[in-house]
């Protein structure tokens, strides 16, 4: 008898259509395929043709469908009707919302534009939002970088014209030894995972330096559980070992860095410590052939690392001499730093020896002829196959800028930057610091600001000060307190505005910045500042406009809400003008586009700014007849030109003979071209031009052709950052612009032009012996994931992880509760033991804890009862020193928020009903989500 088998559909139809766009579940900007059924999102997978991820997609990216359908999504513009902080709103129309915003903003612009503070959180349209703020005329604009990783970016650009993460990457195909410093798992995760996979497959060695062994460090061949805040000391000790052993690339240093540049060495000279330059301002070196001082870029010059030069009674010596004197000092021997770093001296020496062995004994040669900027042709490219990567872990300390500089100097002396096997820049980098704009603060009523808000200072003359010497910006960026604060100080905006220091503001306008919760130090204090009233009963910060896609904690503290879309409902531009998706071998950018239309009365924030810009009659946002210039953000992306032929997108521009890349006129079908290509554009660097970028004529010419530069701009890496010496000179009493007396010693001590290390341990930490850290989990990104139905299952709440030693000292076991106290506050939280942890460090995941009434979560959700934030223990100000001054909890050079300098003490306690502190619930403008989030897409 025949057996009848069931008929199974082994290849069911999973979608009617696939639309390709760019993920926004973290900062990787991976390509995604969004599957639609009956016009609705069915599921999301990676785009295999995309240059960033080649089809790889992480838990966050796959869970984007839950982000798109989250019950926490805002549904319409909102006007506050209850007390600020209550969460009580009423829905209004967009026209009413715009009318309210214009009624607040127009009088400010017409009288005193600095009364608007416009700050944006983690978005990828900073070139656009800064343009809007510049047109408004306020000097008070910045994005989230000032409290995230400005030390990393700024140190890299001042030192070598670019940095890690979005600015560059290891040469994954040739690296033989890869060393990570302070890298958590949520940033750039798919490219790093793919790169680590390549290394492991080839048998390359991975060393992880991090107090916490999770993620990438968990698969490292060697884990170095360093004492937090001492990375710079470890790096300088390795520099000491390498220099003492002669394991440095002298040819590389002479040809491509300022090591041979002559310095004024006369302590009595007003130019002491400054470069010797010719009449054209070019740095001078001694040419080994002629023995004479010569501009560094002259054809045929062979810079001498050893020769000195005496001119007009003043002795000039190469930078390399200064380096030798500083770093060969016994202060940097492994024995001298071992106890402080928590790493045995023998291990420091072993790591340095391993780096030297791979760099010099396993050097590689690529058969790629190339011509340098001096006109010399090289038959091959020498590779030193050691590469480094670092992020916020070493950046978020008060000594982070100098630590990041030290790491870049370590790379450079090995000759491992922009060579095969080393660190490689991603276009549009490398760029010397001097080609970036300087910060502008020229305010005129009813007129645009006189230039870009952010940039790179090159001396006291570039500081953002008013005529009376007071700060021109509300965050005090680019002042004597934080001279090189290239990304601003977002963490200080609310505190300074509340204190009226340096002045009061009228309106605080923020986008995607959860400043009343996980994005602020001192969250409880910030909530009080946002609701504080003066003697007349008026709010100290009079008006707050906020835009977000979700019902976050910050929503409750706004007076007017402009609801944003989800990333699948909007246009976005991942631009070469901003934060592109380039790889080391290619320039690339991308878009997002509305793969589905919103089902709510919401609007992409950038499109809302186009509308507001027109209603406020802002230059650049209206036509000559006063009509709105850009209908929405998509219109802006296509039609805006930053300078002739250069727009937000580099692909498919219009040329005299049709479409072309980089430079060109407006192409009305440009977005369609991107959509047809999977949402991205890519153009590869020609063979032979893809290494030695700062000095390679072929690369420089290609970059000009593509519009990255307007002219070739070869330059030297700056082991010695001369602008820092200029600030020291001012602090020593020279020059017209002088720092206040209370900052002179700090400037002299911290702004060394050669990298140094100083202790970031804050005043007032006596009795608080343990360091407390946070990091992002790989499956979360800021606070958004906490309301994602899939990701919540991975991280529904967070314990405090303690090392075995501290668990035993305090008689704690897994599941016990502890009171964690800092000089600022206390929290009561559950604890768990973790052996792979620095013995005097505790840590937890960040942004898991939520406030009741937010994110459409139930009041008894684990995030609101067991989840917690370390933010309650951190303050934006340092403990008082008794001098009456407000000292920011920041790096004194850049203003980077010093999140990771937190010191605490631990006490075992009885388990409370829920984690403390507990704040009363806020009213949710979107209600509470269903107990079970389920739906069916299609039939």
UniProtKB/TrEMBL annotation:
Keyword field contains Ribosomal protein: no
Signal peptide region: none
Assigned keywords, A-Z: 4Fe-4S, Iron, Iron-sulfur, Metal-binding, Oxidoreductase
Pfam family, one: Molybdop_Fe4S4
Chief place where the protein resides: other
GO molecular function annotation: 4 iron, 4 sulfur cluster binding; metal ion binding; molybdopterin cofactor binding; oxidoreductase activity
CDD domains: MopB_CT_2 (cd02783)
GO cellular component terms listed in the entry, alphabetical order: cell envelope
UniProt KW DNA-binding keyword: no
Required cofactor names: [4Fe-4S] cluster
Protein family: Belongs to the prokaryotic molybdopterin-containing oxidoreductase family.
Name of the protein this chain belongs to: Anaerobic selenocysteine-containing dehydrogenase
């Amino acid at each position: 008898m025949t057996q009848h088998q069931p008929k199974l559909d082994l290849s069911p139809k999973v979608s009617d259509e696939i639309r390709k766009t760019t993920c926004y579940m973290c900062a990787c900007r991976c390509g995604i395929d969004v599957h639609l059924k009956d016009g609705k999102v069915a599921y999301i997978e990676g785009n295999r043709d995309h240059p960033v991820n080649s089809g790889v997609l992480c838990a966050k990216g796959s869970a984007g469908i839950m982000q798109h359908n989250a019950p926490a999504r805002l549904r319409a513009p909102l006007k506050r009707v209850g007390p600020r902080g209550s969460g009580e709103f009423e829905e209004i129309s967009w026209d009413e919302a715009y009318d309210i915003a214009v009624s607040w903003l127009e009088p400010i612009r017409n009288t005193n534009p600095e009364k608007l503070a416009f700050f944006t959180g983690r978005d990828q349209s900073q070139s656009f939002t800064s343009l809007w703020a510049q047109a408004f005329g306020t000097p008070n604009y910045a994005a989230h970088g000032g409290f995230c990783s400005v030390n990393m970016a700024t140190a890299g650009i001042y030192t070598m014209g670019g940095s890690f993460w979005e600015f560059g990457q290891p040469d994954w195909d040739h690296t033989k030894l890869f060393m990570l410093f302070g890298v958590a798992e949520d940033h750039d995760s798919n490219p790093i995972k793919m790169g680590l996979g390549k290394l492991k497959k080839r048998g390359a060695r991975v060393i992880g330096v991090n107090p916490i062994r999770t993620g990438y460090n968990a698969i490292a061949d060697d884990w170095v559980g360093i004492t937090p805040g001492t990375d710079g000391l470890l790096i300088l000790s390795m520099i000491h070992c390498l220099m003492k052993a002669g394991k440095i690339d002298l040819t590389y240093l002479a040809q491509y860095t300022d090591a041979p540049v002559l310095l004024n060495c006369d302590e009595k000279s007003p130019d002491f410590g400054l470069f010797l330059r010719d009449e054209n301002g070019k740095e001078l070196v001694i040419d080994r052939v002629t023995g004479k001082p010569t501009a560094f870029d002259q054809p045929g010059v062979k810079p001498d690392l050893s020769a000195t030069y005496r001119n007009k009674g003043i002795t000039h010596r190469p930078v390399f001499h200064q380096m030798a004197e500083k770093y060969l000092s016994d202060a940097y021997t492994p024995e001298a730093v071992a106890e402080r770093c928590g790493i045995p001296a023998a291990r420091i020496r072993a790591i340095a020896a391993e780096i030297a062995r791979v760099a010099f004994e396993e050097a590689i040669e690529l058969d790629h002829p190339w011509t340098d900027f001096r006109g010399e042709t090289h038959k091959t490219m020498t590779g030193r196959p050691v590469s480094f990567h670092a992020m916020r872990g070493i950046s978020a300390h008060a000594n982070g800028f100098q630590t990041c500089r030290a790491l870049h100097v370590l790379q450079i002396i090995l000759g491992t930057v922009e060579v095969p096997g080393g660190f490689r820049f991603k276009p549009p980098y490398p760029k010397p610091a001097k080609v970036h704009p300087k910060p502008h603060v020229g305010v005129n009523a009813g007129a645009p600001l006189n230039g870009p808000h952010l940039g790179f200072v090159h001396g006291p003359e570039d500081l953002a000060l008013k005529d009376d010497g007071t700060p021109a910006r509300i965050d005090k960026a680019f002042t004597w307190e934080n001279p090189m604060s290239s990304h601003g100080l977002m963490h200080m905006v609310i505190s300074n505005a509340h204190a009226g220091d340096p002045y009061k503001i009228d309106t605080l306008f923020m986008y995607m910045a959860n400043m009343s919760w996980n994005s602020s130090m001192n969250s409880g204090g910030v909530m009080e500042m946002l609701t504080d009233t003066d003697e007349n009963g008026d709010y100290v910060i009079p008006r707050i406009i906020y835009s977000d896609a979700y019902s976050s904690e910050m929503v409750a503290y706004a007076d007017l809400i402009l609801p944003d879309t989800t990333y699948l409902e909007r246009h976005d531009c991942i631009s070469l003008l901003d934060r592109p998706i380039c790889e080391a071998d290619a320039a690339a950018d991308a878009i997002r586009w509305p793969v589905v239309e919103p089902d709510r009365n919401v609007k992409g924030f950038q499109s809302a700014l186009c509308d507001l810009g027109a209603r406020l009659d802002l230059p650049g946002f209206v036509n000559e007849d006063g009509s709105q210039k850009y209908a929405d953000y998509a219109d802006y992306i296509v039609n805006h030109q930053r300078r002739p032929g250069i727009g937000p997108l580099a692909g498919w521009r219009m040329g005299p003979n049709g479409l072309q890349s980089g430079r060109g006129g407006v192409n009305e079908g440009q977005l369609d071209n991107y959509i047809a290509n999977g949402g991205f554009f890519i153009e590869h660097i020609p063979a032979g031009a893809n290494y030695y970028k700062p000095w390679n004529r072929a690369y420089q010419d290609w970059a000009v052709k593509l519009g990255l530069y307007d002219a070739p701009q070869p330059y030297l890496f700056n082991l010695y950052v001369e602008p820092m010496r200029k600030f020291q000179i001012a602090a020593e009493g020279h020059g017209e612009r002088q720092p206040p007396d209370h900052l002179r010693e700090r400037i002299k001590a911290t702004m060394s032009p050669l990298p140094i290390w100083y202790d970031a341990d804050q005043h007032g930490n006596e009795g608080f012996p343990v360091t407390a850290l946070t990091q992002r989990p790989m499956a979360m990104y800021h606070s958004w994931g906490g309301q994602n139905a899939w990701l919540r299952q991975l991280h529904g709440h967070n314990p405090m992880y303690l090392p075995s030693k501290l668990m035993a000292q305090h008689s704690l076991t897994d599941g016990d509760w502890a009171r964690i106290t800092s000089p600022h506050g206390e929290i009561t939280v559950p604890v768990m033991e973790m052996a792979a942890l620095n013995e005097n460090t505790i840590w937890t995941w960040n942004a898991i804890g939520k406030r009741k009434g937010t994110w459409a979560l139930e009041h008894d959700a684990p995030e609101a009862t067991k989840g917690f934030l370390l933010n309650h223990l951190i303050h934006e100000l340092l403990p008082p020193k008794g001098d009456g001054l407000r000292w920011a909890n920041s790096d004194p050079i850049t203003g980077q928020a010093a999140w990771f300098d937190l010191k605490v003490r631990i006490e075992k306690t009885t388990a409370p009903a829920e984690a403390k502190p507990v704040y009363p619930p806020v009213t949710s403008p979107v209600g509470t989500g269903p107990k079970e989030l389920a739906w069916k897409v299609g039939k």
